[in-house]
Specification:
The chain has twelve helices and no strands. It is an all-alpha fold and 245 residues long.
Length: 245
Amino acid sequence: MKLETSALAALAIAATSCGIRANPPGRPSAESQAARPDQVTDFSLLYSSNCAGCHGSEGKGGAAVGLGDPVYLAIADDATIRSVISEGIPGTAMPAFAQQSGGMLTKQQVDAIVRGIRARWEKPDILGGIKPPPYAAEEPGDSERGAKVYAVYCSSCHGVEGRGSEQAGSIVDSSFLALVSDQGLRTTVIVGRPAIGAPDWRGNVRGKMMTNEEISDVVAWLAAQRSAVPGQPYSSSQLTAAGGL
């Protein structure tokens, strides 16, 4: 009996020393295995992989509006942000990311991005009690009135005709207007581009905030500057006369 006991003990020690465990050598543990791409819900990873390229690594903006701008988060609710991420904006550089719209992200991943943006960058008191203009226009703007609004609030930086100056670039460039929606123009007018020193709707003229109607009107004026053929500075009649399609 003592011999058998010693033999079993020796066998157990040998098995341990040879690495015979629940996970055989070469097989990764459950903790070390990478999650499937559609199971990733970490905000930092999702944002850096899908959003940072256009919206900035810290949400400060780049080719597109800064999602980390607390003024933007004051006018755009979760449903708006979720819709833009999921469905994209047709006719612009913003693609659809949700699987149901042809993208790669699950509903849970889109929700994780929305929650993360809000949790990381929102500042509830950023406007100091001032009621901001609504995210979307309530009524269509008037481009003729918009020309006058532009002259008051925008021309000092962007030039008399919007073609730029030493202070700021052109905002009537045909390629730019071809890639941005009317809502994108409205959002920029309201929120500004703080990363490049462009003020929001409160700061274009000292002591004189833009009204909702003025914002809608200047957006209508900007939209009226779009070329008939996106990316080309020619009207349809000019192209026809030149033998174009």
